[in-house]
Amino acid sequence: MANIRQDIHDALSCIKNGHTVMVGGFGLVGAPLTLIDGLTKKDVKDLTIISNNLGESGKGLGILLNQNKIKKAIGSYFTSNRDVGEKYQKGEIELQLLPQGTLAESMRAGGAGIGGYYTTTGVGTQLAEGKEEREINGIKYIFEPAIRADVALIRAYKADRLGNLSYYKTARNFNPVMATAANMVIVEVDEIVEPGELSPEEIITPHLYVDYIVEAQQVLTKEGVVNK
Prior knowledge:
This protein has one domain (3-116, 148-227): Glutaconate Coenzyme A-transferase, CATH 3.40.1080.10. The protein is α/β, with parallel strands linked by helices. The protein has helices at 8-11, 33-40, 61-66, 82-89, 100-112, 175-179, and strands at residues 3-4, 20-23, 47-50, 70-75, 94-97, 116-119, 133-136, 139-145, 149-155, 158-160, 165-166, 182-189, 191-193, 212-215, 218-221, 224-227. The relative contact order is 0.19. It has an eight-stranded parallel beta sheet with strand order 1-14-12-9-2-3-4-5, with helices on both faces. Strand 15 (218-221) and strand 16 (224-227) form a beta hairpin. The chain has six helices and 16 strands. One of its GO terms (molecular function) is CoA-transferase activity. Keywords: Transferase. InterPro entries: 3-oxoacid_CoA-transf_A, CoA_trans_fam_I, CoA_transf_BS, NagB/RpiA_transferase-like. This is 3-oxoacid CoA-transferase subunit A.
């Protein structure tokens, strides 16, 4: 049974200086905004953040960026937040850019116990520099290592008290795959129900991946990020 935590800071106590942290979401959609807010209030530094992007300027992970708590970011769409480019130009952050499909597949490999894989994506571009290249059946591939993290912060719609998760529409972006690829998984949900209230067809992430559950205190609406 997953641990249900009422205190966000208590749930985030496992995150230490220098940790690698996966954060779900595509832009702010499907992002664990409550957990991110808690992380901005935590005394931590030198984090490596694995996420599709670093939020928006002054929103989501963008706040953590402006607090200078992020040492390195691994993702695929950093230009949604121009603060990232400015910090990179100043040498204040290291960036590792991966094509979006490569990012997802590298995390899937990490969760499946696969050390890496060969892909044609990026062959012949700057993204292939320094990577192993192999020709298979006359086609050139580059090797991409699997990605794992110390902690994953993810967002789901419902959880039962065992930790089984269901997601709402496009919140199934990077959240389910991140749940498989981290040593510790903390999920933020809208609702916690009793075991048996989620049908097997609803369950996307089985409870064996989930360590801690917290209820969302912030949500994304048409008006922006608001408190529940």
